[in-house]
Design a protein that fits this description.
Largest sheet: 6 strands, mixed
Protein name: Dolichyl-phosphate-mannose-protein mannosyltransferase
GO cellular component, one term: plasma membrane
Pfam families: PMT_2
Strand order of the largest sheet: 6-7-5-3-4-8
Number of helices: 22
Order of helices and strands: HHEEHHHHHHHHHHHHHHHHHEHEHEHEEE
Helix content: 55-70%
Organism: Pseudomonas inefficax
InterPro entries: LipidA_mod_glycosyltrf_83 (IPR050297), RgtA/B/C-like (IPR038731)
Structural class: mainly alpha
Length: about 525
């Protein structure tokens, strides 16, 4: 048996490698897409307004996602004083956790060497960087999926271990309040049931334990209750129509309805197999011509370890493929299972490929080291290449052009709100504010200004009295005052009006967010 200190040092080195590779460039990165702008803005609005159970976007209820990821970003923002660093820390935490999980499972299911290989394969895969380096919910969801995956395998393959099973169920509950699909580790029970029924070796049969299995549902619900219970209590003690609509939206429309009939990112069934896996699961997919026959041989031997891992990967891919809405990041949670099914076969593959050719072995080692080095370097190159967020530049110019007066947003994006440096007014994000509503507001508030895209400018405003600010979100933006009203729009009062202003706007600058030591985001 290896000494614990040696094993611990090995595991610490792998986790440190994960942090080094995924964390490269952190502090230089800033939110650059709508998801990152939205989630950081919601988290900071939670800190500012103190409404933790119902997320808001510029004063309006945001009902697309549960709040656990935003809670985490808000907490890290408070602790670090740097929102642009805090946004990426959940992904960094996930990278460290998944690396630890794969190393430990590989060691327990096979050997210590296989554990190292599994961790390195995960860190070598392209999708690990494309997801974990982002400030998106999926980078955090994978932490809970990995813990659920770990606890389930400790129980099903190395058990009985009911404590690990209950931990897995609680992790799935927390995954669900990060994103609704956090329950997917439970799909492991399908190949497990098959393996037990057909007496495959390597799985642990646990007959007559129905009551213990049923307790798993209670643990899953307890994880969900961290958010749902106080949410229901708060709505019961003073929730209005908007809060009840949010509850319906988040529990029904954004889960089952969105899965069955998505309204965004609609793709065909084969999308992941043709458009995503060949690119984002590199370099793993290069070995599939050899891996598939090897997996078949292991399954013919009735090896339950491979049945559970490959069966789970297949079920996760099928689950996301059956939904009409697809994005390349959705299938990332399946990657650790695939890696763990590849790791025990890699020594055999390398022996077959490289054989007794020392020069080839040296070339393979050099390529592997270069691969990791390039991903590390990319962490610093990308922020420099992307430059400053154009919304940040635009909203700084808007504040300068209007003297910091109230600004009405028309057809706005999350970046306009996140980087706003003055009070803003809008009439709802989902329906999108139109120029007509902005005209009504300016007629009744002549000291205010409006931020209008070029597509909406000519209908209600005199273009000659508009000031061009720049281009973002595939649109040219202009700021107009009440004097630019051309009188052609018969505007009526908007049904909803939302006012919002950052107490402390996110400071400008592509490399440093100016969070002074004497001021912090309030909890």
């Amino acid at each position: 048996m290896p000494r614990f200190s040696t094993l611990g040092a090995e595991r610490l080195a792998l986790v440190a490698l994960a942090v080094l590779l995924v964390g490269a460039g952190i502090g230089w990165r800033q939110p650059m897409n709508v998801d990152e702008e939205r989630f950081l803005g919601v988290a900071l609005e939670m800190l500012q307004g103190g409404n933790w159970f119902i997320p808001h976007r510029a004063g309006e209820i945001y009902g697309d996602k549960p709040p656990l990821f935003m809670w985490t970003v808000a907490l890290f923002s408070h602790l670090t004083g740097s929102p642009k660093v805090a946004l990426y820390l959940p992904g960094l935490l996930s990278a460290a956790t998944i690396t630890w999980v794969l190393h430990d499972l590989g060691r327990r299911l096979w050997t210590r060497r296989i554990g190292v290989i599994a961790a390195l394969l995960f860190l070598a895969t392209y999708q690990s960087y494309s997801i974990l380096r982002t400030g998106q919910i999926d980078s955090f969801l994978c932490l809970w999926v990995a813990l659920g995956f770990y606890g389930m395998l400790r129980h099903l393959l190395l058990g009985p271990a009911w404590g690990w099973f209950y931990l897995a169920c609680a992790a799935m509950g927390l995954g669900i309040i990060s994103k609704g699909v956090g329950f997917i580790p439970a799909l492991l029970l399908v190949p497990y049931a098959w393996a037990v029924r057909h007496h495959w070796h390597g799985v642990v049969a646990m007959p007559g334990q129905g009551w213990r299995w049923s307790l798993g549902l209670l643990w899953l619900l307890s994880g969900c209750a961290v958010w749902l219970l106080p949410l229901l209590v708060s709505i019961a003690h003073g929730g209005g129509a908007a809060e009840l609509a949010y509850l319906k939206e988040i529990l029904l429309r954004q889960t089952a309805s969105r899965y069955a009939n998505a309204w965004d990112h609609r793709e065909p069934f084969w999308y992941y197999f043709v458009k995503v896996i060949p690119k984002y699961w590199l370099p793993l997919v290069l070995a599939l011509p050899w891996l598939i026959p090897a997996w078949r041989r292991q399954l013919h031997k009735h090896d339950g370890r491979f049945l559970l891992l490959l069966g789970w990967v297949a079920l996760v891919l099928l689950f996301f493929s059956l939904s009409s809405g697809k994005r390349k990041l959705y299938i990332f949670p399946a990657l650790p299972g695939l890696v763990l099914a590849i790791a025990p076969l890699l020594p055999w593959l390398l022996k077959r490929w490289l054989g007794g050719r020392p020069a080839w072995r040296k070339a393979f080692t050099a390529v592997a080291l270069a691969w990791f080095a390039l991903w590390f370097a990319r962490g610093f190159v990308e922020p420099l290449k992307e430059g400053r967020n154009p919304h940040e530049t635009l909203m700084t110019e808007a504040a300068r052009a209007t003297g910091g007066a109230e600004l009405v947003l028309v057809n706005w994006r999350e970046g306009h709100w996140l980087f706003a440096r003055q009070p803003i007014v809008h009439f709802g994000f989902t329906g999108q504010s139109r120029a007509d509503a902005a005209v009504y507001w300016l007629r009744h508030n002549p000291a205010a200004f409006a931020l209008v895209p070029a597509s909406e400018l000519g209908r209600c405003f005199n273009a000659g009295k508009a000031r061009r600010l720049g281009e973002t979100s595939r649109a040219e933006w202009y700021v107009v005052g009440a004097d630019a009203d051309n009188g052609q729009c018969q505007a009526t009062a908007p049904s909803h009006v939302y006012h919002f202003a950052w107490v402390r706007p996110i400071p400008v600058g592509a490399t440093v967010l100016d969070i002074s030591s004497s001021q912090h985001w309030p909890l």
